[in-house]
Amino acid sequence: MTAYAQEINQPDSLTTDSTDVESLELVPLQVADSLETDSIAPIPAFIPYYTQWNDSELTDIEMRALDQSLQWLDTTGCVLTHDTTTLPDSVYKARLQALPCVIELPYNERVRAFILRYVKRNPKQVARMMRMSDYYFPIFEEALCRYNLPYELCCLPIIESALNPMARSHAGAAGLWQFMPATGKLFGLEVNSLVDERMDVIKATDAACRFLSSMYTIYHDWNLVIAAYNCGSGNVNKAIRRAGGKRDFWSIYPYLPRETRNYVPIFIAANYAMNYGQEHGICKAPVEKAMMTDTIRTTKRLHLQQVSENLGIDIYELRRLNPQYSRDILPGGSVYALCLPSEKVGMYIDLQDTILTYKADSLINNRRAEIDLAKVTSISGAYRVNGVTYYTIKRGDTLGGIAKKFHCSVKQLRKWNGLKNDNIREGKKLKICR
């Protein structure tokens, strides 16, 4: 069973660039299609950029992603006491070892670089994600518990999407867990022009847990599973072969794609940042506004604008609550969930019939259900379109003869075609409106 796109073709004899493995002057993560990785999520949509870079090194796509990841919530004042001091390695190591984790979270210079990237260079992003985790982590933890998976996997969506359920990478990955379309469909998610369940928090989380569980049955090592989540099992298997059969992430590290070499250290750093952000003076970002939500299930075709204008809910708020409906349309036919502010659920139930008919023709019914095809008649290649027959005048035809063929009068032919007399020309078309 393949859940990936295409493999990276690395040479059997791989020469490691010392600046890639040993130097802390790291470059920004490159976009996925430049690496041609086979991946459930070729590139995090909003990535934690590495330790040393300047704006000129980032692409427009990367800069927009970084800007959006840092501006979701107002974090003004959250990091005024931000700790910019450099702690000794022993502190970072001890803190990681103190976390109650099943997955190994070892410490090295790479991990340190990414910890500093989070807590020293991107504290506002950490503040935002600490706040968003209050909402998303309970959802993740419930699903991880159901599949008997380690809770620290909650941090995977942090490096995939920065906890933005509407995240899309230019390579095509989407949602909190950054599934590619083919992988999403493989794990039962509906992905089409109207519905993209990769952005459905509940369904995508369940699919991600099934994917991670299936990978663990193969590798029995969580760091290898995390690496496979990023670059695909094919690349991990090739790295294992090139490492002489060793099945440990740090042993196969030099043989992995560059992005994946950094992926596990980023995962470790994300766990550190989410657990020890406050130790670095980072507080949770304030909530824009608190909202209790509830879900309505419907089989009716529905447009979010119908709901917005009848219930007085901002359309942008509805889109944030229902990011899986990429064109604002619930297709109907099957059961679909509509997430609403709790105080609006009763109003929706009372006004359901009104909502369904409101602007239905312009919003959801403006498609021709049936079209009459041009049908050729048996009379010299004449054809019909929408109830009108069209006949091409042949050499020797007369208006009287044509009228006789189509069982109408000459007067009718002249009227239908705006003719002032009986003169006709070869090659012209006549309309017979009957």
Describe this structure in words.
Helix 6 packs across helix 9 and helix 10 packs across helix 11. The longest helix is centred in the N-terminal third of the chain and has 24 residues, at 123-146. 44% of the residues lie in helices and 7% in strands. The strands form 3 sheets. Strands 5-6-7-8 form a 4-stranded antiparallel sheet. Strand 5 and strand 6 form a beta hairpin. With 434 residues, the chain is an alpha+beta fold. It is built from 20 helices and 8 strands. The model is unreliable at 1-76 (pLDDT under 50). The protein is elongated, with a radius of gyration of 31 Å.
Order of helices and strands: HHHHHHHHHHHHHEEHHEEHHHEEEHHE
Spans with pLDDT under 50 lasting ≥5 residues? 1-76
Distance between the termini: 59 Å
Total strands: the figure is 8
Count of DSSP-assigned helices: 20
Radius of gyration: 31 Å
Major sheet: order of its strands?
A: 5-6-7-8
Secondary structure: elements and pairs:
Layout: H1 18-21, H2 32-35, H3 60-70, H4 89-98, H5 109-121, H6 123-146, H7 156-161, H8 181-186, H9 201-219, H10 222-231, H11 233-242, H12 249-252, H13 258-276, E1 293-298, E2 302-303, H14 304-311, H15 315-321, E3 329-330, E4 336-341, H16 342-350, H17 352-357, H18 360-363, E5 375-376, E6 383-385, E7 388-392, H19 399-405, H20 410-417, E8 429-432
Antiparallel strand pairs: 1-4, 2-3, 5-6, 6-7, 7-8
